[in-house]
Amino acid sequence: MIGDMENNTEEIFNSTGMVTNIERYAINDGFGLRTTVFLKGCPIRCKWCSNPETQKLYPEMVFFSDKCIDCGECRRRCIYGGLKNGLNADRTVCERCFERENAFACVNKCYPQCRKIAGKEMTVKEVSDIVKRDMPFYQLSGGGVTVSGGEPLAQPKFAYSLLLVLKKLYINTAIETCGMGKEEDFAAIAPYLNLAFMDLKSVDKEKHLSWTGSDNDNILHNIVAMDGLSAEYGFDLILRTPVIPGFNDSLADIRHIGEFVTKNFKNYKGMELLPYHKLGRGKYISLGRNYELKELTPPSDEKMEELNQILYDMGINLYQF
Ligand code: SF4
Ligand code: SF4
Ligand code: SF4
Fold this sequence. Notes:
Elements: H1 9-14, E1 16-26, E2 34-39, E3 60-63, H2 73-77, H3 91-94, H4 105-108, E4 115-118, E5 120-123, H5 124-131, H6 135-141, E6 144-148, H7 156-168, E7 173-177, H8 183-189, E8 195-199, H9 205-212, H10 217-233, E9 236-243, H11 251-264, E10 270-275, H12 281-286, H13 301-313
Parallel strand pairs: 2-6, 6-7, 7-8, 8-9, 9-10
Antiparallel strand pairs: 1-2, 1-5, 3-4
Residues 61, 78, 80, 82-83, 89, 93-94, 97, 104-106 line the site of one iron/sulfur cluster.
């Protein structure tokens, strides 16, 4: 049980996790100015995911061709044949390159930095040393640190240790989670949270399966459990629904979600509907992956208003970060 580590300071500070990014001055990931720590690894595969570089638990090479000056250094350095057919790597060769002796040799001399590694192993101490530099901003703005991903609880020991350390530093903490994971891991992090954003993508099991690769049984169970934990430990719980055309954007879809919420949640603060966007599309290309939703159009403002109105009429508090 990760909760048993609570008094082992050395183990907590030395816990390592795979981090993709630490973003400062974030304004959409909770109250006030925040630093968002993106962890790698996610147990589900949402077709609309805007952070595909966070899905796998291990480091990957990303390539943004628009900055490439065609110097050829990467081709000369890769001895595994990943670039033998051109600058767009053969991803079947690149898979798990981090395990090789000359791991990611293609990246090292790419001076324009259009080839990078997504995912870096860091200790809790290293992350906390970075995020605490912005303490004055947190204090002035009512902000703090948000642990995001990927799914933070894909690395439960690291997420737990980081949240615990942040709390001991009196830093306001938030987590963004898809809700998939072990119930005991959610219970372990609950005492160290000020705010939890939990996804409630759909209450329809089959749709959830076909659009995310996983059904929603475990997720629905965990978010309801977190409603109880929010009362026990005094953190705010906000449910988030990404509105994806064709998946959950009908009036009936949102009404079903609202009915599930009003029936099962007693202590949560409210909900936020997030309109689908295409901002992550370039990242799929950088990973050599196919973006399935090329033809999808984001919902209009009018449509979002209509969907929000349904929840509002059901007595649900609405947030917009
Ligand atoms: S090393 Fe970088 S800039 Fe040079 S060819 Fe490779 S990707 Fe392009
Ligand atoms: S990730 Fe590895 S295999 Fe792929 S191009 Fe770079 S060095 Fe070669
Ligand atoms: S839960 Fe989040 S990180 Fe995981 S696949 Fe879905 S959108 Fe991406």
